[in-house]
Design brief:
Helix content of chain B: 25-40%
Chains: A alpha/beta, B alpha/beta, C mainly alpha
Order of helices and strands of chain B: EEEHEEHEHHHEHEHEEHHEE
CATH superfamily of chain C: ABC transporter involved in vitamin B12 uptake, BtuC
Structural class of chain C: mainly alpha
Oligomer: heterotrimer
CATH topology of chain C: ABC transporter involved in vitamin B12 uptake, BtuC
Distance between the termini of chain B: 43 Å
Shape of chain C: globular
Shape of chain B: globular
Helix content of chain C: over 70%
Number of strands of chain C: 0
CATH class of chain C: Mainly Alpha
CATH architecture of chain C: Orthogonal Bundle
Largest sheet of chain C: none
CATH class of the domain at 3-85 and 160-255 in chain B: Alpha Beta
Strand order of the largest sheet of chain B: 6-7-8-3-9-10
CATH topology of the domain at 3-85 and 160-255 in chain B: Rossmann fold
């Protein structure tokens, strides 16, 4: 298969940005208040602690700009509410289970490493919680996985929460800023874990976690066969795939795979099936979520008359990743390890 | 064609609108249906046209019950002209006249081979008859009120009917247009029934009038016999005098102010 | 009102046979050209070779994947766009005549909202039903409800149909929103929005077959009832006086339009503006009588949607827009132009 030479980056970026705007407008027009999903991975937070963080000095009160909103954390949060798996698992991994009063809107079962601690944290809602159920817990910090969790229909507007003395914090990778998103990488991820540790009042645990994760990722032997991969997240008529600058790209690269949609400057993108077939990926990574299982995607691929002609589909060269691992958080490293392991079990002729 | 109503009744919304109406439409003549608003003129006209079905009694066309005739057959014998209506789509004058040919087409309503050109020729002739020769390509909506009514007459003629029914054909028309429309219809020499509210137009133009009041026939005869001051006062509630038109000799009704 | 001059109002009409022949040729050319367009790098020669090979001509097919792209993706998709465009154009024209409402479109009687509700139920609730079937059933259920409501108020008049359809549309849209809000998680909303906007991206040969059968069967019936539709131009009484059985005709034509639209929506979602705008455009050029309007609007709709889909596939290459976005973006300015030219309407 011939591959077309890539277009000038400026045009494709502008086009990608416009397409994002159009689709976002379309989503608004459909009057959906559902979460928009992580479309950018911009580290849109800058911290300016009141004092230089040193072992003996108290870093609080902490002020920072998070997703364009100024946030003040007066002291180490003792009553943390987390929304979505990425933040819940991060807080648990930082050993904060005894300081968590509730979690909500999880994307699946908790990661095995933190499941035991997580069992003690009550789940207040399977879907987006409303403000009252969050306020009932008298939190002092709401740690939300998506910026859109913090709306009037959800946990509450950020300024309203702040007025009630409740700080709110969103992982910078999930901020919805406009403009071309900066590229996600493990360094960026680890920086964000450190920042989260500062905000949540567990800086040593964060440093330890980062050190552990860094050593694990550095120990990973990426697959050396130069394979290319499709990161298939959802969609049957038009697939929604991992593109060039987000968490999927970060994970694929670390596993030694080349993303066939790496030329699109976005975290995720909708790609024509035609394009998928033309780029002929060697393996296909399937995101497994409760609302769109890997099995379902396998069926879609097999039933589509064009993709069923792909080698990757005929030989079922599938790799599976659970949905929570596809958001920036503690599971990304695990996902890389898992992919490498699954790849080792795949032999290509 | 002989058209008559025998004890026809009809109602809607729980009210009786036409109540036991019986009369015969004289052939070859122009008959006027008169009466105040709400007397049931339009409803009776629609019953006579076969568009509405009587609740009681029958409308007979040539000794057949009208609503038992196949619809298309009925449309070939009777043509109904409503008060001015506007089409919902842009149509040319020729388009409008050709609508009159629909009852003459076969089962699905599509013209047979060769019929199309025959229809077009007939339509052109009908337009000429109403004095609108050359207007075929004009947009219907751009014509004046009087011209539009003439086009509708042409459409009715294209149905090649034996009887013409008109519902207040002169509404919205200025005096000149009213008179020229009515003289056109007379010149067609077709049996005609027209609902009119203008007594003087009826007097000067109709051979025969039928007066309705609250759905019942109160008078039936020649204008001179029927349109008396007593009747006018009884039915219309207005005092009037009947004079002779200096030119035509037809009755001329002059009203007193209330 | 004085008589206007001939010069400003005489309309020169294009002869029907010329117009239809021209449109048919344009359609064939469009389909053939559209198949050569696409994000993947396929030459025209390869595209034609693939099609020729599948048509039984003694030509070698290109490599397996290129062949799959052309024959399994692009060709059925382009053909589906053509069929759906034709169907929606026809349905829109007939609906406008039946309801005597220039703003009517094929989805007037709750058809698209009902179909959306059916589709969302499958997409979100994961019902084990084929999406096209659910959409079709949803469309017809909404139609039945609209007609029941309209009928309950008395006989079936255009105004009642429009109002009942509005009510049912709002009801289905609300129900759809509830389903989405209540159960949609993760990024499942993307598929829903794509479906709601309308897209032929998922078209396969099955879609072509289903929609083509509906188009041929219903389309022929609609073409044959062209003069009856003309008779409605001056209202129900005028139609009745021309020998038309008004209630029965209205019901049967509505049923036909609903079947046709339901089949189109089942295959492609609710693509907007085709059925609303194209009939007006064709009327301007060829006139309102349905014997001219219906075949012309079918062909025009087919050509239009083929090109709209081609644009949707290629403008933001390698990303894809749902074709409903393109038809709206093109349709709105065209609609504005048509509104300004409505001088000749009442």
């Amino acid at each position: 298969m011939r591959h077309r030479a890539s277009r000038p980056a400026l045009i494709s970026r502008t086009a990608a940005a416009s397409a994002v705007v159009v689709v976002s407008l379309a989503a608004c027009a459909a009057s959906l208040g559902a979460a928009s999903g992580p479309t950018t991975a911009s580290p849109a937070s800058s911290t300016s602690p009141a004092t230089t963080p040193a072992a003996t000095q108290d870093p609080y009160p902490l002020t920072l700009t998070n997703c364009g909103v100024e946030v003040t954390v007066p002291s180490a949060p003792q009553r943390i509410v987390t929304i979505k798996s990425s933040t819940t698992e991060l807080a648990l991994a930082l050993g904060l289970a005894d300081r968590m009063v509730g979690s909500a809107f999880l994307d699946g079962p908790l990661a095995p490493e933190v499941a035991a601690q997580g069992a003690a944290v009550p789940v207040i809602s399977d879907a987006l919680p409303n403000a009252e159920s969050v306020l009932e817990l008298a939190p002092d910090l709401v740690f939300a996985g998506w910026e859109s969790n913090l709306t009037a229909e959800g946990a509450g507007e950020r300024d309203v929460l702040a007025g009630l003395g409740i700080a709110s914090y969103v992982p910078p990778a999930a901020c919805r800023e406009s403009g071309p998103p900066p590229v996600m990488s493990f360094d960026v991820l680890f920086e964000q874990i450190v920042e989260a540790g500062d905000v949540l009042g567990a800086p040593e645990a964060a440093a330890q976690l980062v050190a552990d994760q860094r050593s694990r990722i550095e120990a990973v032997l990426p697959d050396a066969r130069g394979l290319d991969a499709l990161w298939y997240s959802s969609g049957s008529q038009t697939p929604y795939v991992g593109a060039g600058t987000g968490v999927p790209q970060m994970i694929l690269e670390a596993a030694g795979l080349t993303n066939i949609a790496a030329d699109v400057a976005d975290s995720w993108t909708s790609l024509a099936w035609e394009e998928v077939v033309a780029r002929d990926p060697d393996v296909i990574v399937l995101v497994d979520s409760a609302w769109n299982t890997a099995e379902n995607k396998k069926q879609v691929l097999a039933e589509n008359p064009a993709t069923s002609a792909l080698d990757a589909v005929r030989e079922e060269r599938y790799l599976v990743v659970p949905f929570p691992a596809t958001e920036a958080g503690v599971r990304n490293v695990v996902a890389v390890e898992s992919l490498v392991e699954q790849l080792a079990g795949l032999s290509l002729d | 064609m002989e058209l008559s109503a025998r004890d026809v009744s009809w109602g809607a919304g729980g009210r009786v609108i036409v109540d036991g109406v019986s009369f015969a439409v004289p052939e070859g003549r122009v008959t006027g249906l008169l009466g105040p608003n709400g007397a049931g003129k339009s409803s009776l006209l629609r019953l006579l046209a076969g568009v509405a079905v009587p609740d009681g009694g029958v409308v007979l066309a040539d000794a057949t019950i009208l609503h038992e005739l196949p619809r298309r057959e009925r449309a070939r014998r009777l043509a109904l002209l409503e008060q001015e209506t506007h089409p919902s789509v842009p149509l040319t004058v020729l388009d409008v006249v050709l609508l009159g040919r629909i009852p003459h087409h076969s089962g699905w309503g599509l013209p047979r081979a060769g019929e199309e050109s025959r229809d077009a020729e007939l339509a052109v002739r009908c337009l000429a008859t109403v004095g609108l020769g050359g207007f075929e390509g004009r947009e219907f909506a751009t014509l004046s009120g009087g011209e539009r009514q003439r086009v509708q007459v042409a459409r009715a003629l294209a149905q090649e009917p034996r009887l013409l029914l008109l519902d207040e054909p002169t509404n919205h028309l200025d005096v000149a247009a009213q008179l020229s429309l009515l003289s056109l219809v007379r010149s067609l020499e077709l049996t005609t029934v027209a609902a009119l509210h203008d007594l003087n137009l009826a007097a000067s133009w109709c051979d025969h009038v039928v007066v309705l009041d609250a759905g019942r026939v109160v008078a039936d005869g020649a204008p001179r016999d029927v349109l008396t001051p007593e009747l006018v006062e009884r039915v219309y509630g207005v005092r009037a005098h009947v004079l002779d038109h200096p030119g035509t000799g037809r009755p001329l009704i002059a009203f007193d102010s209330p | 009102m004085t008589t206007t001059t001939d010069a400003t109002t005489r309309r020169a009409r294009v002869p029907l046979s010329v117009a239809l022949a021209g449109l048919a040729v344009l359609l064939v050319v469009s389909v053939v050209v559209a198949v050569t367009f696409g994000p993947a790098d396929v030459t025209a020669a390869e595209a034609f070779a693939s099609i020729a090979h599948h048509l039984g001509l003694p030509v070698d097919a290109p490599d397996r994947l290129t062949d799959a792209i052309v024959w399994e993706l692009r060709t059925p998709r382009t053909l589906t766009a053509a069929v759906v465009g034709a169907g929606l154009g026809l349905a829109g024209a007939v609906m406008q005549s039946l309801t005597r409402n220039p703003l009517a479109d094929p989805y007037l009687l709750g058809l698209s909202s009902g179909a959306s509700l059916g589709a969302v139920a499958v997409l979100v609730l994961g019902l084990a039903v084929a999406l096209p079937a659910a959409a079709f059933v949803g469309a017809l259920a909404a139609l039945a409800l609209s007609l029941a409501i309209a009928r309950a108020a008395g006989s079936l008049t255009p105004t009642r149909m429009v109002l009942a359809g509005l009510a049912v549309s709002q009801l289905c849209a609300a129900a759809t929103s509830v389903v989405i809000f209540w159960t949609a998680t993760g990024d499942s909303y993307r598929e829903i929005v794509t479906w709601l906007l309308g897209s032929v991206a998922g078209a396969d040969w099955g879609s072509v077959g289903l929609s083509a059968v509906a188009l041929v069967v219903v389309g022929l019936a609609l073409l044959a009832s062209a003069p009856t539709l003309d008779a409605f131009a001056f209202g129900d009484t005028a139609a009745a006086s021309l020998g038309v059985h008004v209630e029965r005709t209205r019901w049967s034509l509505l049923a036909a339009v609903a079947l046709l639209t339901g089949a189109m929506v089942a295959v492609s979602g609710a693509i907007g503006f085709v059925g609303l705008v194209l009939p007006h455009g064709v009327r301007l050029v060829l006139g309102a009588p349905h014997r001219r309007l219906l075949p012309a609007v079918a062909l025009t709709g087919a050509v239009f949607l083929v090109w709209a889909d081609t644009l949707a596939r290629t403008v933001f290459d390698p990303r894809e827009l749902p074709v409903g976005v393109v038809t709206a973006l093109v349709g709105v300015p065209v609609f504005v132009v048509l509104l300004r030219r409505r001088g000749s309407w009442s």
